[in-house]
Amino acid sequence: MIPVLDVRGLAFAYPDGHQALFGVDLHVHRGERVALLGPNGAGKTTLVLHLNGILAAGRGSVAVSGLPVERANLQEVRRRVGVVFQDPDDQLFLGTVRQDVAFGPANLGVRGAELERRVMDALDRVGMADFADRPPHHLSFGQRRRVAVATVLAMEPEVLVLDEPSSNLDPASRRELADILRSLDVTLLMVTHDLPYALELCPRAVVLSEGVVVADRSTYDVLTDEALMSAHRLELPWGFDPRRIGSLPR
Amino acid sequence: MGAGHGHRLHFHGHSPLHRAPAHLKVLGLLGFMLVVVATPRQAYGVFVAEALVLLGAVAVSRVPLTYLLPRMVVEVPFALFAVLVPFISHGPRTEVLGVTVSEPGLVAGTALLVKGTIGVLASLTLAATTEPQDLLRGLQRLRTPDLLVQIMGFMVRYLDVVTAEMARMTVAMRSRGCDPRSPRHWPVLARSLGALFIRSYERGERVHLAMLSRGYDGRLPR
């Protein structure tokens, strides 16, 4: 089976010489939910920006459902890989929620009734259909995060990539977003520092540290491997014990 | 969140001026301002006529003057300059209220003040009767280059975000015993404005990335 995300030997250095990735291998298959863990500066965001061709591989390759990420395929790659960025204010920049959600599919040439259907469908899936005509910056932070997810869902991506989806959310919004993410029938790659969230949502975890993948196992195994955790600056919140929760079925 | 999308300038209403198409209003304002600017400096009768036309438009729009006048403070720096002109200009002197001032300077200053005031009030009337989104669509209909309209759209969208960021920075400064209003702390204020510029610039880059990720190719879909 062709993996949805197929990253091989990916290396990348920024123009200032700082090398962020040293040969990353990662395969994600259809329907998987994978957490991408790692300390600050591990190269997680750099990796994410390669998945939809914002950054071009220095060495190695990235393919999305068999389609290589390269200049000629960028439009299709960006349809297949939906990236939700950390700050919803970066993602929502138009006058109304509806316009913002329509932005992606309209760029793909979707028009008219089909565009409207996609917009409302995406908003429905994140429970924000009643807010279609509101300006995004009048919404609460949690609502904006959900609309940001909808802006990407409207492109009907094959894989949803979320950068720190639970950051800055209050516990209720955090749980609501988890419910939404669980309800989506889509492959998911989630960059996060929120380890309980990773355990709750993603059966599999990949640990990136200093630009290489150092672990790729079940999230439960990663979180209970104390040597691995402390070697890569990963820490569980105080009082949180994965052993009392158990592992999600893979 | 504070008021958004220029609600601070927009006055909700249903007058004929509110309903008029935005591109006609823009053309109207532009034409009117060209006439005002072209009016000879001492044609006071024409100034009065222009002011009456403008006040008529304001009356039609049913936007109360008490709403518009406080917003005219934006003119203050220009007004200060206009008031200075009679004192710093050369030429024959004349006496006003016991103060000797330059006569050509007095004429120039007065004309500047009058034209400026009419311009600011006319622009505020346009802003009060037109939603920023409609204004942008109007400009688009007038074939304003797409890139300019996009830039203005982003300004409208991110004005609140940047002001809120600035407000948070000032609060953080105050919390550490700095008073941005005291000249002694102006260097700090200047540095924080620099930081704000960098942050906004970086946000611009992040927004652009997020747009590219959703297939943006240089044109906003209509």
UniProtKB/TrEMBL annotation, chain B:
One of its GO terms (biological process) is cobalt ion transport. One of its GO terms (cellular component) is ATP-binding cassette (ABC) transporter complex. CDD domains: EcfT. It is found in: Cell membrane. The keyword Electron transport does not apply. It is a multi-pass membrane protein. Keywords: Cell membrane, Membrane, Transmembrane, Transmembrane helix. The chain crosses the membrane at residues 20-37, 44-61. This is Transmembrane component NikQ of energizing module of nickel ECF transporter. It comes from uncultured Nocardioides sp.
